[in-house]
Structure formats: structure tokens, C-alpha cells
């Protein structure tokens, strides 16, 4: 599906509810205003109205969508499962492995897999690698974790860092507080995406917090991608208003935040 997420080309939701819509389970502060849950609560967008809490509905894996990856000619970046967490506790491990198999046979496509549960991603990917006799993920599979504050930075970055991959990424969105000194973590990540929260009831994101991350990434030579300032951006203690509702127009960013880099893939 085409998308307005700036750091990918298309989203693919390979895990869906059997009766329509999607499901996920809220995990941390970053999930409070989950856009996927909002869409799922609206039948107009194909949702099933279930909240992202409680027990999952019956789910299905879209094996046909996975099979098609191997036949795509035009190279694209695929954000796999924007409406759920494919490494959720409720997702069968063999589904995760079937997804990785599909990615493995589509080496000209890039797959960006984002989780708030990198400890599960680590153990599932380790298992998959050992089943295939591999010591590292192929270059086209980018494992990533969401980070929203210092607690999730400390907790999640350590698991992501252990995944044997050539490109690992963070999605620091919604950024909910100043992350402080992140230098020690930057050696283990090859792309940092940052952004403030968008949508109704957006929590504030201070432009100074974004600037600090961008400066530290530049100093460490880690590619950084500023996705958006968010709908409630603050600068110097005042609201920083943008014409774009989510603060996603790069031309409205302060000069030093006008940066959207990607890692240069290096084959080994
Ligand atoms: S992990 Fe993502 S999709 Fe799932 S509830 Fe949290 S924000 Fe929503």
C-alpha cells in the first residue's frame, strides 16, 4: 500500500484480523495515541473496532503478499506491518520465520521491520538464522526498534544491538523527552529516524531535543532522518507553528533539522 511515511516507499500489513482490520497490544508510552488503533476503530478505514488491548481476535498471515515479494522487479523499501507489531507475544514464531523467508528470497527489496519488542525479535531472528546456517541477516533486512524516551532507549537499544544485521535502525517517534547523551549507543545503529508526535492530543516535542539527536548523529557519522516536527512542536519554550499539520514539510524545519539521510548499503 502506498504511504505518506517519509522513510519508506510502501507499507505492507501481512498480519490482519480474519474478519477484517488489524490488532496489536499497547506496550509503552509511545503507544498512547496509536494511529493504527484509531484507524482500526473506524470501519470506514476497514477497521474491526476492537481496541488494541485485551485478547486478540483471530488473526491471519497473508502468505500471498509474502510470496509476491520475490517477484517484484522495482526495488522498494517496504515497512512491514505498520498496523501491528510482528514481534508481538501473540504472533506465532513460524509466521515471523515465514516472513523472513519471503524477505530472504527478495534481495532487491528492502524490508524495514519495526518493533517495540526487540527482545522477541532478537530471539526469533537468532532462531531463523541458525535454521538457515547464517551468521547474519542479509543486507536487505533492516531490523529496527521504536524509542520514545530514556527508559526505552536503555531497554530496547541493547536488544537491537545484539541482532546480527548490517543495518539496524531506531525510530525515535514520538520523541517524548530529551534523550540526553546517546553517543555510547550510536556505534550499534546505522540509521536514526526522529520525529515528534502527530494527530489529536499530540504530546509536545521540543525542537532542541531533535537538534541534540541530529548533532550527535552527525558527530558519530550515523545517518539521521528527520521525519517530522510533530503537531505540537515547541522551540525556545514557545509553540513552533507549521502549515503542515504534522510538521512534516522539510522546508518548514529549522535549517539544521533539514536532514533526511539513509545508510549507504555496503555488501559483505
Ligand atoms: S506497538 Fe505500534 S501498532 Fe502496536 S499499539 Fe504500539 S504504536 Fe500501536
From TrEMBL:
- InterPro entries referenced in this protein's UniProt entry, alphabetically: DUF5131
- Report the superkingdom from the record: Bacteria
Q: This protein is called what?
A: Bacteriophage protein gp37
For this protein's source organism, the top of the classification is: Bacteria, Bacillati, Cyanobacteriota, Cyanophyceae, Nostocales
Amino acid at each position: 500500500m502506498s504511504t505518506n511515511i517519509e522513510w519508506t516507499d510502501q507499507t505492507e500489513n501481512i498480519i490482519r484480523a480474519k474478519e477484517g482490520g488489524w490488532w496489536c497490544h499497547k506496550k509503552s508510552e509511545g503507544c498512547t495515541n496509536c494511529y493504527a488503533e484509531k484507524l482500526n476503530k473506524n470501519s470506514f478505514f476497514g477497521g474491526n473496532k476492537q481496541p488494541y488491548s485485551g485478547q486478540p481476535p483471530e488473526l491471519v498471515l497473508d502468505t500471498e503478499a509474502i510470496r509476491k515479494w520475490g517477484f517484484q522487479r522495482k526495488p522498494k523499501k517496504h515497512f512491514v506491518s505498520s498496523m501491528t507489531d510482528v514481534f508481538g507475544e501473540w504472533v506465532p514464531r513460524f509466521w515471523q520465520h515465514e516472513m523472513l523467508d519471503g524477505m530472504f528470497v527478495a534481495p532487491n527489496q528492502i524490508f524495514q521491520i519495526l518493533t517495540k519488542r526487540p527482545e522477541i525479535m532478537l530471539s526469533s531472528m537468532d532462531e531463523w538464522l541458525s535454521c538457515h546456517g547464517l551468521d547474519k541477516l542479509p543486507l536487505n533486512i533492516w531490523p529496527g526498534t521504536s524509542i520514545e524516551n530514556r527508559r526505552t532507549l536503555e531497554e530496547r537499544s541493547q536488544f537491537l544491538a545484539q541482532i546480527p544485521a548490517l543495518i539496524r535502525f531506531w525510530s525515535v517517534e514520538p520523541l517524548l523527552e530529551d534523550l540526553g547523551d546517546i553517543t555510547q549507543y550510536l556505534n550499534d545503529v546505522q540509521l536514526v529516524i526522529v520525529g515528534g508526535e502527530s494527530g489529536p492530543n499530540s504530546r509536545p516535542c521540543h525542537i532542541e531535543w531533535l537538534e541534540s539527536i541530529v548533532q550527535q548523529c552527525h558527530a558519530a557519522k550515523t545517518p539521521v532522518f528527520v521525519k517530522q516536527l510533530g503537531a505540537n512542536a515547541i522551540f525556545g519554550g514557545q509553540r513552533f507553528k507549521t502549515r503542515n499539520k504534522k510538521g512534516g514539510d522539510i522546508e518548514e524545519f529549522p535549517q539544521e533539522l533539514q536532514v533526511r539521510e539513509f545508510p549507504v548499503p555496503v555488501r559483505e
